[in-house]
Write the structure tokens for this entry.
Amino acid sequence: MPVDPSARIAPTARVDADAVIGPQTVIQDYAVIERDVVIGSHCLIEPYVFVKRWTTLGDRNEISAGTVLGSDPLDKAFVASERSYLVIGDGNKVREHYTISRGTKPESSTVIGNDNYIMTAGHIAHNSRIGNNVVIASTSLVAGYVEIEDQVFISGGIGIHQFSRIGRLAMVAGMTRVNLDLPPFLLFSGYKVGATGLNLVGLRRAGFGRDEIRAIKQTYEILFQSGLKVEEALVRVESEIDSVHARHIVAFIRKCKRPIARMRQPAMRGQELEEEAE
């Protein structure tokens, strides 16, 4: 049967006969589940959630009230009759009034990994790739074709430009404009986004030891403080630092098709006063 006998579906919910609902999943009042939807086991679908066609959810996902999954892309070239997908992994929490679009080109996908916490009133656009254990705070907007690696923390009120990439364990401060690629393991902030230092709290919480953090620090000193051109700095890191995390940083930067955010210099007090006066 498409609906497992142990699933609980409220009488006011509307679940298409061709939808697949896994064991112990709960679908609450006024939720709408369209055809060609697969929802795994032990999921919670709260009231007024709309899961649109060609969306797949894994197990243990919690989707809060008013959320729309698999919405049509915000793309004028999109053809609604063509098939594309939204694929969501396991153990995610998507809070109230959120929208996540499916892919915009035929047979393409938007992909959300596992164990992510996505807060209220935001949007993830078509063909984005979100890794695992990512936090996206309230009212942040993720444009199309964005890639976010594992364990990234996106604060509130952030706009992420299409095709941007954010590396593992980066942390982005609230109200930042992300229109460059953000390498792994750093803190970023500012309207003109820049790095302000290592994400030391995040690294320690993720279990990084002193030697690992020291190697990351040495990598960034070469990349951002040596005065070398990017390619020269990458070659020097490869020759001098034997670290899996240094290699990850180098690989991330080599893959970038747009500029990376560089170190942001602290403002002098006089500059701060001028900015406040403005």
Observations:
- Confidence is low (pLDDT under 50) at residues 267-278.
- The domain at 204-255 is CATH 1.20.1180.10 (Udp N-acetylglucosamine O-acyltransferase; Domain 2).
- The first strand starts at residue 8 and ends at 9.
- The first helix runs from residue 200 to 205.
